[in-house]
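[worker-b] picked up task from shared queue
[worker-b] task type: protein-ligand structure
[worker-b] ligand name resolved to 2-acetamido-2-deoxy-beta-D-glucopyranose; SMILES cross-checked against name lookup, match
[worker-b] sequence length check passed
[worker-b] input payload:
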Amino acid sequence: MTCFTLIFFATALSLPFVFADLRSSLTSAGISAVFPGDESYTAASRAYNLRFTFEPAAVVYPTSPEDVSSIITAGLDNNLQVVARGGGHSYVANGLGGKDGSLVIDMSSMKSITIDSGVNTAIIETGNRLGDVALALNAAGRALPHGTCANVGIGGHSAFGGYGFTSRQWGLALDPIFAINAVLANGTIVRTTEDSDPDIFWALKGAAPSFAITTSIEVNTFAAPTYAIVMNYSWSDVDYKAAGSYLYSFQNFSLSGPASPFAGELVLSRGSQEGLVSFVFTGAWYGDEGSAIPTLQPWLDVMPPPSSSSLVGNGSYIDSVAELSLPNSLNTSDAAASTSTFYAKSIMTPEGDPMTLEACIALTEYLANQGFFSNTNWFAEVELYGGPNSKISEIANDATAFSRRDTLFTFQLHASSINGLPPYPEEGFAFLDNMVNSITSNMPPTWNYGAYTNYLDDELQNWEKLYFDDNYARLRSIKDHLDPRGIFVFPTSIEE
Ligand SMILES: Cc1cc2nc3c(=O)[nH]c(=O)nc-3n(C[C@H](O)[C@H](O)[C@H](O)COP(=O)(O)OP(=O)(O)OC[C@H]3O[C@@H](n4cnc5c(N)ncnc54)[C@H](O)[C@@H]3O)c2cc1C
Ligand SMILES: *[C@@H]1O[C@H](CO)[C@@H](O)[C@H](O)[C@H]1NC(C)=O
Ligand SMILES: *[C@@H]1O[C@H](CO)[C@@H](O)[C@H](O)[C@H]1NC(C)=O
Ligand SMILES: *[C@@H]1O[C@H](CO)[C@@H](O)[C@H](O)[C@H]1NC(C)=O
Ligand SMILES: *[C@@H]1O[C@H](CO)[C@@H](O)[C@H](O)[C@H]1NC(C)=O
Ligand SMILES: *[C@@H]1O[C@H](CO)[C@@H](O)[C@H](O)[C@H]1NC(C)=O
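[worker-b] inference finished, payload out:
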């Protein structure tokens, strides 16, 4: 290996240093790999978020769990830290290790999906993206809860939660998982379940990347809904005080517990003048035809008429999945080429302690004023997780490593450079920090809000509590036991 590796990791790891040539050990195992200087290295090591550029020690392409085990062993022999890349959509390029020098295990050659129609289960390899999973399951009349963008990888997504429009009725992407096939830090291949390895299985469901490389997940699937429709209501150029009261009334409606086939999010973005914002509700309904709008009606009754509204789609479930996806297609063949340059933060609001009207208005005032002048493209998205009738919050906070089950709303506060390319403007960091502060500074200091591990924030203070809350202590002790040499280490990984 290069001197680079020696400098960074020989001292970081407390194992006797064994020199072995990484390239030759991978080649002799028949595993393809890309190294610095190779023609394809630049493309292979490019992050989705171009705010980050990292130089992995190598990017390696296994085709089996045995290959993954061999790669981990080669990493150990060369004192390298090892990381998996699924769809590569980590907000902070953690699929590249979140720093220089990691050995990257790219899962893109492991894309099988095996459906057992007799018992309605599926085994999904972690090189698949959400679009691949949705299309394959739908062809068998089945579905899973997961996020909207087709290009996101199921590996990272289901490791940290995985929220989408069917989550209120089916849970997070990690919830239907009943077994996880993985390779541990010592290279051992395991099939973990709640019964076989309660600690490992618990930790993998919400914090997997700190503990193992997941090669496939075994899931219980759901019958694809026979009717699905997307709803879109937009209020353009809303005065900030009105926008704050709309957000508050949406919270009130959410707390009343719309039926579980109902899903929705708000997106607030720049208005055409200082003091105004654009306010859009996008919802979905997976129940009886004709019940979508009546379910939303109690909120529409307290809202002014929208500037525009539409029902999107023709009732087909898979069509609704495509409508909600960006790009508007479930074909992921060009996914590796897509990029952005952005920073994002999140807030998960506790269902038992909802936002005050003052906090809602403080946010919309900030968006309408500072947001109008921001030199970024930004949005503030409010995702409906909870409320009575949500499957997400039916599970206890300590039942899996995913700690923030009792969330009503997950806010995603997101800003990108105007042309989508680097550099991300320096002012864009404080802009989003103050968006968060506009809410939190108007809530009591004891407000137990959280942050979402799939919207990872490399600038976040106190992330242990915000991401993992009361589960962090148990995660640390499992980490200490499973990865004592610190093989799976990246920004915001569980500390030993
Ligand atoms: C455009 C876009 C849209 C999004 N939409 C949603 C959404 O609707 N809902 C939602 O909940 N989230 C959403 N996300 C966030 C997304 O869920 C996370 O970024 C997710 O972690 C990405 O997973 P990945 O496999 O694509 O990323 P990667 O960068 O490959 O991986 C992310 C993390 O998981 C680890 N990892 C990946 N695969 C494995 C594996 N097999 N074993 C162990 N660790 C692994 C990586 O090491 C890294 O730490 C979105 C992100 C983007 C960029
Ligand atoms: C909803 O409407 C807004 C504003 O008209 C538009 O920008 C957005 O693309 C629409 N979304 C869907 C899913 O149709
Ligand atoms: C809150 O919801 C109730 C019904 O659940 C409704 O009667 C009331 O008008 C709502 N208030 C606001 C401020 O939206
Ligand atoms: C719905 O529209 C899509 C194209 O957008 C089409 O492929 C599908 O067959 C249609 N389904 C129904 C039930 O009309
Ligand atoms: C997906 O898109 C690619 C080109 O972008 C095309 O070659 C391929 O045929 C498409 N796949 C399907 C199933 O439509
Ligand atoms: C690898 O680690 C696991 C979990 O700690 C342990 O059960 C197993 O025995 C270890 N295997 C080897 C070969 O040390």
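[worker-b] attaching auto-annotations
[worker-b] Residues 184, 186, 188, 482 surround 2-acetamido-2-deoxy-beta-D-glucopyranose (ligand 6) (CB under 6 Å).
[worker-b] releasing lock
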